[in-house]
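It would be a great kindness if you could assist me with a short task in structural biology. I am sending you one protein, given as its amino acid sequence and as whole-number tokens for its backbone shapes. I would ask you to consider whether the tokens describe a fold that such a sequence might reasonably adopt. The full record is reproduced below for your convenience.
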Amino acid sequence: MTRFFILSLLCALLISPAVAQEGAEDQAVPEGQIEAADDTLSEADFNKRLELSKKMHEIWPIRPKIERALDRIAAQVPPQNRLEFKSAMRKAINFQSLEQGSIEAMADIFTVAELEAMIAFYGSKEGRSVSFKTDDYERALQPLLSKMLDKAVLDTKLGQ
């Protein structure tokens, strides 16, 4: 596997709950439900977003998500190569830089209200449970999705 593919897969795994929302094209989102990013933020508002983003990362840190994603990817590597693969991937990932980049991205993308709602939800007992169970949910869907993707690739090759 190429490093680009693996890092792309890691990114996809990290944001999978958001991706699930994006895929619902047939579900109309009422106008005004999604607030667009604001490029004209005041410094005080951005600083508040950074503060909330840091708090969100205390609740929902990046490293455990990356580690779980690495475990899933490593499961596709021959058993005798798994430890070496995971070690090489850990060396390639600067966790501190990734965490800081994630904090800044959250502050850029999410509003104060959205970050406060995320903190309230993911900081709750139910929110922590949902976050923990998301991996199980994704694993449960993976065989079905893989089957559908395999069929789509085959259909495309056969011109159907």
Helices lie at 3-14, 16-22, 43-59, 62-74, 82-92, 95-109, 112-122, 125-158. The mean pLDDT is 81. DSSP finds eight helices and no strands in the chain.
